[in-house]
Amino acid sequence: MAATLVSLPALPERWAAEKDFKSVGKLTKDSATQRTIEPVGPHFLAHARRARHKRTFSEDDRIQAQERAKKVEEDNDSEISEPEDPMMLQREAKDWKGQDHYKVLGLSKYRYKATEDQIKRAHRKKVLKHHPDKKAAAGRTEDDNFFKCIQKATEVLLDPVKRRQFDSVDSEADVEPPTKKQLVKGNFYKLWGSVFKAEARFSKTKPVPLFGDNKSTKEEVENFYNFFYNFDSWRSFEYLDEDVPDDNENRDQKRHMERKNTNARKKKKAEDNARLRKLLDDCSAADERIKRFRQEANAAKNKKRLEKEAAEKKAAEDAAAKKEADEKAAKEAEEKAKVDREANKKAKEAAKNAVKKNKRVLRGSVKDANYFVTGDAPASTIEAVLGDIDLVQAKIDPDEIAALSAKLTGLKVADEIKGVWTDEVKRLVGAGKLKGDEIKALKS
Amino acid sequence: MSETKPQKPGPAPGDRAAIGITFGNSNSSIAVTVDDKAEVVANEDGDRQIPTILSYIDGEEYYGQQAKAFLVRNPKNTIAYFRDFLGKDFKSIDPTHNHASVHPQDVDGTVAFTVKDKAGEDDEPSTLPVSEVSTRYIRRLVTAASEYLGKKVTSAVITVPTNFTDKQKAALVAAANAADLEVLQLISEPVAAVLAYDARPEAEIKDKIVVVAELGGTRSDVAVVASRGGLYTILATAHDYEFAGAALDKILIDHFAKEFMKRHPGADPRENARSLAKLKLESEATKKALSIGNNASFSIESLSEGIDFASTINRLRYETIARNVLEGFNRLVESVVKKAGLDVLDVDEVILSGGTSHTPRIATNLGSIFPSSTTILAPATILTAINPSELLARGAALQASLIQEYEAEDIDQSIHAAVTTVPHITNAIGVVSVSESGDEVFVPVVLPDTAVPARRTVYVAAPKAGGDVLVKIAEGNTHIKVTKPEPKQAAKPNGNSKAAKVEDADDSDADESDFSEDEEDEEEKREKVWNIGATLAEAAIRGVKKGGKVEVTINVGADLGVTITTREVGAKGGVRGVL
């Protein structure tokens, strides 16, 4: 809609409102739909910022503007934002070896991380501020000591070789290993991590593995310790050399000093290596991760051993169980045999008794039948009958005896008894078990 | 998303190296942001669109274009088109496109692929769940990006289709985490495309309705996005699995297969798996060539039974045989606009994204359904258009660069529903003005579907003579006015004489009428007209200078409270009122 085509209407006459504003309508809930905006893009970030901090548009604009403005200021000023220590300003330029070059240039928060560009810019800023001519203008002549300090610092820091020598002995960049008291609070990984981050600056090989945290894998942790136990450091200690006299007069003295310096460097280097080693020993001794990995490894090893033992134990138990089962089976078999034997015996006895009883029945039957004669039976008849009965009994087996006795029991009439007996004898004769002439009394 | 991801803690914001990843079903891309400019990175093969394919030969893993070539020779160990299976059950996946590669398998309801990924002759083929396949693929993407950047990539923003479920998102985040990649955020694909366009330095942030047509290899997704002061709201989406690049390939495959059979009667090359794979590869190449030139050649060595085949096709022929599919895209786009409750006249921009968008015909077809005021952002219609294949990755990379300095927790909180779900006003809020002919005209200030809180400012001219003016704030909405052609008589619809004082909606169109006067328009003329609705407030600005302008700022609060500030431009003070 082109604003050029249309214009606002003129105010009708007699239109009046308090403060020239008249509220007529209102937006209601009906005039809005809940929708989801896509969380994407710079304008959403602004929206999220406003929503989360409950800012209005104008507040947010103002805060953002302030933040932006501050940033520009910081960019200009960041390198020399550090306050200058008045003691430092009093430094003698002669004593340049003792000075902290980074601090002189106001770069103490960057130190070995400071880029060449930062150093140059910092130098320029300091020069502008401390140039002796400016001081002369302020009435302080001959005060170029700190300016010389600045020049020296820049000279050292812009020369890669000299800078390395200085960085090697820059104790300000060291991070002291945490004390036990600090570690009690629990941020073990953070504290040691920063120690080794500082140590890492001396490494010839990059990148240097990070200390990690309690979630690091075994591999990462091993990698870290291996790296630091085999640390390849460029640290050197020339910077701490004693001054070698520069005159040609005393050559021996000079050589002596040089030798002394070389030895001192070697010694310091060895000490430094030992220091790092101790640091690592201390750290690894307290490192929970290593303990955990060891426990895990042990657990794995133990697992194997335990499994083996368990297998052996199981085999032994199985064998014992088998033996026991065998013994039990044998015992049972034996007992069974015994029971069987006894049962046999009993059965036999019972059979014998039965036979005896039956035989009594047989004998009783002929007695009941009065030996098949009327009146008193003569002894010879009795003997003949009983002889026959014995003969029959001897010829037949217990079952037949039982059958016979069953037939005879209950019979009282002599003829019937005799009939049974003669039938039996006949049967036996017929079966060939008995010869007819053997029987005396019981023939029909 | 924030509630579905049990993400492991990522690196600190300072140590992050973040990229944008588009993990597509057919192709993927990686992009980095250098100096606020997003750039799509080529992998070691030199590809910017990296086919989402993994192939295993003798235990060696290939991905991207190399793996794609193996679809012909080694389809049994080549996994393709697996992105859409991520986080899905086996019963809900569509394995159509995997016909010519490893087929997905049902493993306890989840999707897996069986390939021989080890070198040894006797090694058993391994069954990889789709999450593992994704992890391996993402790892390759990350490696490629790391090599380009020279440092290890730790974090990424990944684009996902709008219909990705929380489960799928969680699966994608898990797969990325398994590849040692922190997922800063998952952003939806259409919004990534809009962001890529809006982040161009020359782009100005306007309130507009954008249709993002994302035409991919295996699926097409269309979304209507309301862009209001740089805040994006998706109004409607549609997803289509028929009209996509693969359908165009199919047409070329059929075309050339028939031509081949005409010349060499005999076996149909489509019957043989290897011949079909060759046809598919070459058809895709031919399709791409036809997007650039008017003619393209098609040649395959030993297509079938050892016979070489070579042919050409021109664009016209291609567009004729592919007409059905090409017009399908039109219907798809139209349906989404309708679904959003809008008219094509409401659409200010159409962004074509995805590989299939290179096809010139699709862009010109879309141009014909939208009015001339709608910008179709496609290479065929606008020379400065961004490569549609790179849009998503660029958007993701831009988002990555925006949020990489925030803590993960901060990001989570910011994308929480409490922050993202806000009321959107239904009706426009605007200033009632008069046109030169004296009709009341609605000047919209805050458009419909604007997320609140919102603040908009408009400058309206005061009457030429100056003096006291009335600033009347009202709600308004649009309707589509259809004017039947009036044969012979080129008269303007002369309703304006009586309209001066009447707040009748239909009259406010008069200001547009002088456009149509001389046009010999055979078709009926459709235009968008603002209706003036309920009045919200009135304010008076007194003593405006001659030719002065009045600034009206409307601020709609999150509670739908409206603050109106109005003053003459250049003057102090002004009138301020709260509803």
From TrEMBL, chain A:
Residues 46-55, 253-268 have a biased composition (Basic residues). GO terms for cellular component: cytosol. One of its GO terms (molecular function) is Hsp70 protein binding. Signal peptide: none annotated. GO terms for biological process: 'de novo' cotranslational protein folding; regulation of translational fidelity. Residues 100-170 form the J domain. Keywords: Chaperone, Cytoplasm. Residues 32-87, 245-273, 298-357 are annotated as: Disordered. Pfam families: DnaJ, RAC_head, ZUO1-like_ZHD, Zuotin_N. It comes from the Eukaryota. The keyword Chaperone applies. Residues 74-85 have a biased composition (Acidic residues). It is found in: Cytoplasm. Residues 56-73, 306-351 have a biased composition (Basic and acidic residues). This is DnaJ domain-containing protein.
Automatic annotation (TrEMBL), chain B:
Residues 480-528 are annotated as: Disordered. Residues 504-524 have a biased composition (Acidic residues). GO terms for cellular component: cytosol; nucleus. It holds the Pfam family HSP70. GO terms for molecular function: ATP binding; ATP-dependent protein folding chaperone. Keywords: ATP-binding, Nucleotide-binding, Stress response. InterPro entries: ATPase_NBD, Hsp_70_fam. CDD domains: ASKHA_NBD_HSP70_ScSsz1p-like. This is Heat shock 70 kd protein cognate 1.
